[in-house]
């Protein structure tokens, strides 16, 4: 049943940033802005509807759509600059697609929820976040979202505590079947980060049921709920912020979408961390 394997890598840099540490920046590739075309409007509308299901409500008119050299589409917030987009067939017959998008880091810290700021006890507050979509011709698509939280009112005069919550949803298009889908982070430019906590903490296999991801700093927790099917395979790096979590298929090929997610908490000296966030999915041709 298995045939050619297709691999897609998506990356973003910045403060909502995105990229894979295994890829290096290259000259800006040739892309075509199709935002205002019928094809672009349809892609933005579809992405906007999916993003809303992830809790991120952004109008289709606020999304840019680029057509890459291989014909695939990339949808995301206006202002993103594609710095790498490659398509190649590997020696083993698999196909690899790599994308890198640069987003300028947010320098100003948006005001936190007034209720959090008015409280005397430490509390986690959402700061910013966004989603991106990549569709690779006929093989499938994967969305990724990155959200950033800060621990406000903490008693540590030296460090600030931050959590990056990253999750992705992937689906293959017949005659292709999804075999893996992963999201990951690593440190980008900016201050040195130090590990505090991470989730998941181990590999696990579940039969499509809710799973909680919880992290904490200074005794104050933050949790997220996702749907896990089959196996989640996590890897934590030695360097702070280096982490990835992959969904991997079981014995049988699957239909429909699959989800993977992770959360990391790091501390920085009175500043804001920056991340690379990567997303990868693979498919086999089965028909």
Name some characteristics of this structure:
eight-stranded mixed β-sheet, eight-stranded antiparallel β-sheet, 287 residues
Report on the architecture of this protein.
- The protein has one domain (5-285).
- Helices cover 7% and strands 55% of the residues.
- It has helices at residues 38-53, 114-118; strands spanning 5-14, 32-33, 63-67, 73-77, 81-89, 95-102, 123-136, 140-152, 159-172, 176-187, 194-199, 204-217, 220-236, 243-248, 258-269, 275-285.
- It has an eight-stranded mixed beta sheet with strand order 5-6-1-16-10-14-13-12, with no helix packed on it. Strands 2-3-4-7-8-9-15-11 form an eight-stranded antiparallel beta sheet, covered by helices on one side.
- A hairpin with a 6-residue loop joins strand 13 (220-236) and strand 14 (243-248).
- The model is unreliable at 1-27 (pLDDT under 50).
**Uncertain segments:** 1-27
Strand order of the largest sheet: 5-6-1-16-10-14-13-12
Q: Kindly report how far apart the N and C termini lie.
A: 8 Å
Sheet with most strands: 8 strands, mixed
Please indicate the count of domains.
1
Shape: globular
Question: Compute the gyration radius: what is it?
Answer: 19 Å
Q: What is the tally of beta strands?
A: 16
Q: What is the strand content?
A: over 45%
Task: Give the count of helical stretches.
Answer: 2
- SSE class: mainly beta
The ordered H/E elements are: EEHEEEEHEEEEEEEEEE
Fraction of residues in helix? under 10%
Average pLDDT level? 80
């Amino acid at each position: 049943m298995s045939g050619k394997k297709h691999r897609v890598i998506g990356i973003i840099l910045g403060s909502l940033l995105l990229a894979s540490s295994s890829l290096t920046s290259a000259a800006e590739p040739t892309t075509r802005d199709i935002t205002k075309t019928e094809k672009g409007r349809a892609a933005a509308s579809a992405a906007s509807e999916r993003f809303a299901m992830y809790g991120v409500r952004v109008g289709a008119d606020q999304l840019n759509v680029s057509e890459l050299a291989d014909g695939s589409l990339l949808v995301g917030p206006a202002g993103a600059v594609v710095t790498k987009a490659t398509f190649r067939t590997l020696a083993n017959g698999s196909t690899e697609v790599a994308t890198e998008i640069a987003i300028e880091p947010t320098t100003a810290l948006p005001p936190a929820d007034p209720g959090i700021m008015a409280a005397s006890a430490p509390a986690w507050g959402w700061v910013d976040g966004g989603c991106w979509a990549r569709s690779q011709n006929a093989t499938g698509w994967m969305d990724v979202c990155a959200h950033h939280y800060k621990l406000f009112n903490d008693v540590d005069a030296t460090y600030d505590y931050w959590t990056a919550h990253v999750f992705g949803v992937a689906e293959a298009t017949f005659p292709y079947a999804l075999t893996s889908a992963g999201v990951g982070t690593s440190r980008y430019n900016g201050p040195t980060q130090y590990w505090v906590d991470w989730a998941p903490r181990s590999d696990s296999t579940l039969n499509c049921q809710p799973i909680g991801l919880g992290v904490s700093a200074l005794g104050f927790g933050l949790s997220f709920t996702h749907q896990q099917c089959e196996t989640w395979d996590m890897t934590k790096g030695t360097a702070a912020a280096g982490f990835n979590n992959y969904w991997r298929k079981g014995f049988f090929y699957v239909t429909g979408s699959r989800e993977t997610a992770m959360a990391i908490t790091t501390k920085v000296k009175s500043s804001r961390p920056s991340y690379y966030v990567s997303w990868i999915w693979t498919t086999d041709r089965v028909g």
